[in-house]
Each structure stands twice: as structure tokens, then as C-alpha cells.
Amino acid sequence: MSEVQLELYKKLYRLICEWQPAWYKSYAGIYSDDLVVFNTLLNFMNHFESVEHIWANIDMRGEYFNAFACEQLARYFDQRRCKLPIEPVIPFDEESYLSPRGGKVYFDARKQLLLPLHEGSQTFDVLSVGGGSEIHSDSNNFKRWRI
Description:
By secondary structure, this protein is mainly α. Helix content is about 40%, strand content about 10%. The chain has five helices and five strands; from the N terminus they run αααααβββββ. The longest helix is centred in the middle third of the chain and has 21 residues. It is elongated and about 75 Å long.
């Protein structure tokens, strides 16, 4: 290996791993072992300061790289495995279910209760808040917002 080749590895590392870390995601798919090992190789080569540093203890470089690659692959697959569990919704009645914190949630969001909005500052105690933009006025001119 020459200094020119080492510099090429370092440039590839900067281009692929630092400047454009997401370019390969559309190409990787679910079989991305080779891509992870390629990124590992670039990362491994990037930490060497010179070719002399590589040649020092050359007999063990393959072992060091294999251990580093196995660690990176294990980390990658551990990240892919860590997903939130899907919990089934158990109906409370025909129209609603209870959230994990005990709040009644309607299957039809339009049936959720509305908070009355008066002039000035107000404080509400709620279990959770969703997003919405429907504003309703009633006969007393109270405005209610579906959240």
C-alpha cells in the first residue's frame, strides 16, 4: 500500500461517511451487510496516519479489522432489531378504547371532547394532546377547539 492509496481511502471516507452519510440508503435495501463492511473498511483505514502505521504489526491487522467489522455488524443489526412493539387496541366499547394512560380515545376523532376556549389564560389537565384545527362556536359564543 502506498501513501496515495491510503489518501484515496481517506477521501472515500470523507465523501461517503462524513459528507453524504445517507446516499447509499436507497441502494442498501435489507441486505446491507456488504455496505456495512465497506463503511467499516473506510472507517478502519481512515484512522491510520501513514502507511508506516499500517505496516507496524501487519500480522494482526486482519484480526483487528475482522473484530472491528464484527462489532460494527453487531451494532447495525442491534439497531435494526430495536423497534417499538406493536400493541393491539382492545376496544372499551363500540366507539372507543382506553389509551395506555387510561384516557378514552374514540375511533372517530370527531367524537373526542372539545376544550372550551375563553378569553384570557386557561389551564387544562389532559392525559394527551393530538393535533387538529377544527374550531367550533356554541350558542354562548364559547369557542371550542378539537385537539
